[in-house]
Structure formats: structure tokens, C-alpha cells
Design goal:
With 149 residues, this protein is an alpha+beta fold. It has 4 helices and 5 strands; from the N terminus they run βααβββαβα.
Length: 149
């Protein structure tokens, strides 16, 4: 018996992936992506320690995870941050997100990173459940926001 993830390939993100990542982001949020993925991915490609991966099913990009090492801010030595994560809605529920997350966590663990953080909206219960299944818990940080208009 084969699982749906048997034909999924996870590789490092490339600048040429920006258009497809933007498409997936837009399909998840049901609106135009406000992220400049071309710029974000270009910076990732220059980094030796940041981990950003994509998942491919055949030649189709079906998921992505953009993360970076935290450089000591807020006393977060040996930490990383998952900044942006998405799976094409047509491919959700097939284990693709779990493959991307595990690859990211393994990458950071190999670098000696001790903690990986992320942020989830309160109403995103499906995403919160996903991260809990992966072993994420509430951290010692509280996210604060001030809107500058």
C-alpha cells in the first residue's frame, strides 16, 4: 500500500518558485498575496542557515515552508522562526504539510537549533491543530501588535 506522500519530493526553495508560492498563498487566503515572495526567496537563497523548502508532486509545486534562524533577538539564541507556510488547498490532507515541517525541523536540529517558533491566528484552529500534532506548544512569548495608520 502506498501513501499519498510517496510521490512528493521536498527540496530547497529556489527563486524561480516565487510565482507558484504566491499562487498557493493567494488560494489559501482567497485574495491576492501581499507578500513579495520574489524578494523573500532571493534573501533565503543567500542565507547559509535559513531553511526554506518546497514540496513537489510531479512537476507541480504543492506546498512551501519559509523559515529563518533568529539571531539572538529577545534572547532567542539557537532559535528559528517559521515565517510562512502553505499547502495548495487541492492537496491539503495528504501529509504534504507534515513532510515540509519535518524537513524544516530536521534541518534546524542538524544545525544545533534548540527552539523553533511560529505564530498562528486564534481563529486558524486547523493550523493550530496541525502545529500541535507536530509537537509545538505555547511559548513564553506573547505576540503584540500596534497598528500604524
Amino acid at each position: 500500500m502506498t501513501t499519498s506522500t510517496d510521490k512528493i519530493v521536498v527540496r530547497k526553495m529556489r527563486p524561480a518558485d516565487a510565482k507558484e508560492i504566491s499562487r498557493i498563498s493567494s488560494s489559501i487566503t482567497r485574495g491576492e498575496s501581499r507578500n513579495d515572495f520574489q524578494n523573500i526567496i532571493a534573501k533565503q537563497a543567500e542565507s547559509r542557515t535559513d531553511a526554506s523548502f518546497v514540496a513537489l508532486k510531479g512537476k507541480r509545486l504543492v506546498g512551501y515552508c519559509i523559515s529563518h534562524e533568529l539571531s539572538g533577538s529577545f534572547d532567542t539564541k539557537n532559535s528559528a522562526w517559521i515565517a510562512n507556510f502553505g499547502v495548495d488547498p487541492d492537496f491539503m490532507g495528504q501529509g504534504i504539510g507534515e513532510l515540509l515541517a519535518k524537513k524544516t525541523l530536521e534541518y534546524y536540529q542538524a544545525l544545533g537549533i534548540l527552539n523553533v517558533y511560529t505564530s498562528v491566528r486564534w481563529e486558524a484552529t486547523d493550523l493550530l491543530s496541525f502545529y500541535k500534532i507536530l509537537g509545538f506548544q505555547r511559548s513564553e512569548f506573547i505576540t503584540l501588535c500596534k497598528c500604524l495608520e
